[in-house]
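Dear support,

Our group has been running a series of protein-ligand predictions, and this particular one with fe (ii) ion is the one our PI (initials K.S.) wants archived with full inputs and outputs. We had some confusion internally about which version of the output was final, so please treat the block below as the authoritative record. The input we submitted was:
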Amino acid sequence: MEILWEVDYFQPAEDQKSPLLNRPQKRPLRGVPVRRLDHVNLLASDVTVNKNFMMEQLGFRLREHIVLNNGIEAGCWLSVSPLVHEVALMRDGKGARGRLHHVCYWYGYPQNLNDLADVFREQGIYIEAGPGKHGISQAMFMYVYEPGGNRVELFGDPGYLIFDPAWKPIVWTEETLAAGIVWFGGNLPGEFFLYGTPVVHEQEPAMASA
Ligand SMILES: [Fe+2]
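Confirmed final output from the archive:
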């Protein structure tokens, strides 16, 4: 991991500056005008040790997690803000380490995702899953691959927000997990639990029955 701080802020060119002063630049007239980065989802060979690092060293709080019957933590959702997660860690179904599962941008509302799905289909952008709704985070999702092969998620709402300082983490088990992964909107394909970037080819036991 690499931690960045005191980064340089984006400076728009003069003709890109917006009179809406709390916008970093004018709304682009092409592409998807996402409003903000929502979270990143990283694949890990061991979710728990990475979770402990994030919590003990960086002050993240555990919001939801998946604990399999054998006690292995298959995924966790962590945040420092009221978002359900800014960082998610999932067990790499291929046993690899240090891979990206997806980066997620908050775009808009559920109808926005339906409109975008039309655009993606017409433009040949691969839609892996969605629009649908996750149980975990309660957010409306759609997963696409950008041309470089990385999975990008678009959120059609922010999911629920947490303002309770004494929040008790939600535990999803193998018995309840199906509703956690998809609440409605069709199942996630098997590749969702195996594909990450960079691509690796060795095949190891997938995320148990998830
Ligand atoms: Fe996500």
